[in-house]
């Protein structure tokens, strides 16, 4: 039995023993463990996805409240941060969460899974606009075992406007995104600055993730990716250095935290709470409301604990002093 517990299926970095720890952490019982031979169907994938989404917040605090102000993507370091250390409510930003979740899914038995890099658009007045950036985001793409159905895109680390369930890779299919009236879909098109468009020679259109906050609103195109173009963890190591250490990138001077709240019964996602720098908002199923504007570090760290369940150590709290994102009571 001990030998079985040490297995790392499908190239996962995690053992079956670690999977038991994970399931306990996210509130799922051993019937979801590979040793129980669960059916790896869409219902199973949705349950795992939403348990993950509501257990680990999107947050970039390891850039700010960290003596070395950098992020490491080694899967064992991620497991230790998210699971092994005393429960402090920690999560991570997109590359941390998506790489961690990919290794979890592989160990659970999903063998047909790969990474794809995505190009985001920047927000202006809260709305994505302008050109698509270079690759700054990461999604997982999975095919269910023993099925001829569509691929599913698992975006576990996009934040407040990200999908709250595995999204089938089908064009123009509109889905309700769990909270309020927001709808999401994929379209497929050339990017405005994409010059190679000869499909007979292998040119590929991008799949574009779009959302609108109600059926009477315009669609907003947020990020684009090519699922046939597989990225590796070494690709994301390079991108991670830019995203977490380059002072021109907003991640290094803006604190971002989004926690999805677990619902009750059939309502798996009950709402979300969000922090951008010192501004804290919540959406419990209707409109987004302002909760508090933090002016000092003491106010912000207390709000992280009270509303988001994130507990920082004294060393972490001190590490932000003198950093661009520090709240100085101004």
UniProtKB/TrEMBL annotation:
Q: Which Pfam family, any one, appears in the UniProt record?
A: Acetyltransf_2
**InterPro entries, alphabetically?**
Arylamine_N-AcTrfase, Arylamine_NAT_domain_sf, Papain-like_cys_pep_sf
Matches recorded under Gene3D superfamilies: 3.30.2140.20
Gene Ontology MF terms in the entry: acetyltransferase activity
Coiled-coil region(s):
none
User: Family, per the entry?
Assistant: Belongs to the arylamine N-acetyltransferase family.
Q: Which PANTHER family match?
A: ARYLAMINE N-ACETYLTRANSFERASE 4-RELATED, N-HYDROXYARYLAMINE O-ACETYLTRANSFERASE
Please state what the protein is called. Answer: PaNAT1 arylamine N-acetyltransferase encoded by the PaNAT1 protein
Q: List the lineage, top down.
A: Eukaryota, Fungi, Dikarya, Ascomycota, Pezizomycotina
């Amino acid at each position: 039995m001990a030998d079985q517990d040490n297995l790392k299926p499908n190239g996962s970095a995690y053992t079956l023993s670690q999977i038991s720890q994970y399931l306990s952490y996210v509130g799922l019982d051993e019937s979801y463990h590979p040793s129980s031979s669960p059916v790896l169907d869409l219902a199973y994938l949705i349950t795992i996805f939403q348990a993950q989404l509501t257990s680990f917040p999107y947050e970039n605090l390891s850039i700010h409240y960290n003596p070395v102000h950098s992020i490491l993507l080694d899967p064992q370091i991620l497991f230790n941060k998210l699971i092994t250390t005393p429960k402090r409510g920690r999560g991570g930003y997109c590359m941390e969460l998506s790489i961690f979740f990919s290794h979890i899914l592989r160990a659970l038995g999903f063998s047909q899974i790969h990474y794809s890099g995505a190009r985001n658009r920047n927000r202006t007045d809260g709305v994505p606009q302008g050109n698509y950036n270079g690759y700054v985001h990461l999604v997982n793409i999975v095919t269910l075992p023993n099925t001829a159905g569509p691929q599913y895109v698992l975006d576990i680390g996009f934040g407040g406007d990200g999908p709250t369930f595995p999204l089938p890779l089908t064009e123009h299919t509109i889905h309700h995104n769990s909270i309020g009236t927001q709808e999401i879909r994929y379209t497929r098109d050339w990017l405005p600055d994409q010059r190679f468009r000869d499909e007979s020679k292998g040119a590929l259109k991008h799949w574009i993730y779009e959302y609108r906050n109600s059926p009477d609103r315009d669609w907003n195109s947020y990020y684009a990716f090519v699922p046939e173009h597989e990225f590796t963890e070494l690709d994301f190591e390079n991108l991670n250095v830019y995203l977490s250490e380059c002072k021109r990138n907003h991640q290094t001077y803006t604190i971002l935290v989004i926690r999805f709240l677990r619902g009750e019964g059939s309502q798996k996602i009950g709402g979300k709470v969000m922090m951008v720098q010192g501004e804290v908002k919540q959406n419990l199923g209707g409109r987004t409301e302002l909760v508090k504007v933090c002016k000092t570090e003491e106010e912000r760290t207390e709000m992280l604990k009270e509303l988001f369940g994130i507990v920082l150590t004294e060393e972490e709290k001190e590490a932000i002093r003198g950093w661009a994102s520090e709240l100085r009571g101004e």
